[in-house]
Specification:
It is a single chain. The protein has 137 residues and is mostly helical. The protein has three helices and no strands. It is rod-shaped. The N and C termini lie far apart (149 Å). It comes from Saccharibacillus alkalitolerans. This is Cell division protein FtsL.
Length: 137
């Protein structure tokens, strides 16, 4: 037999002994089983999750509400700008019409009144107007 040094010699002997007598080794495996959570703890976790979901949904709802308000404000501002443009256009038209009244009246043959000459207009009573309207119909 060849000489071996150290643990190899012992191991060789152990191997020889095991090979000669077939012994069965008993293997033990450690199975660790997690304990199930108690019902109260499960309910506590469920309640905390529900509270977190409720808070997140409230925050999201508020953001949606703020977005909707901003959208309404922007549309109201655009409508206000459009109305202001229309008012400015109407003011220009009004100014143009005021400036064109006197030349138009003079071209139609009307005479401009002075401060010293009053203008007399015939006054008709309501009965005469109604009778004239009845005659026209």
């Amino acid at each position: 037999m060849a000489q071996t040094r150290g643990n190899l010699a012992i191991r060789e002997q152990e191997k020889r002994q095991n090979s000669t007598s077939q012994q069965y080794r008993q293997k033990t495996t450690v199975v660790t089983r997690r304990a199930e959570l108690p019902a109260r703890e499960k309910l506590l976790y469920l309640a905390s999750v529900l509270v977190a979901v409720a808070l997140c949904s409230i925050v999201a709802w508020r953001y949606v509400h703020i977005y909707d308000l901003n959208h309404k404000i922007a549309s109201a501002q655009s409508e206000t700008n459009q109305i202001n443009k229309n008012i400015a256009q109407a003011e220009r038209d009004k100014q143009e019409l005021r400036q064109s009244i006197v030349p138009t009246a003079l071209s139609l043959g009307l005479v401009q009144a002075t401060e010293h000459e009053p203008i007399f207009v015939e006054r008709k009573t309501g009965e005469e107007k109604q009778s004239a309207a009845d005659k026209g119909n």
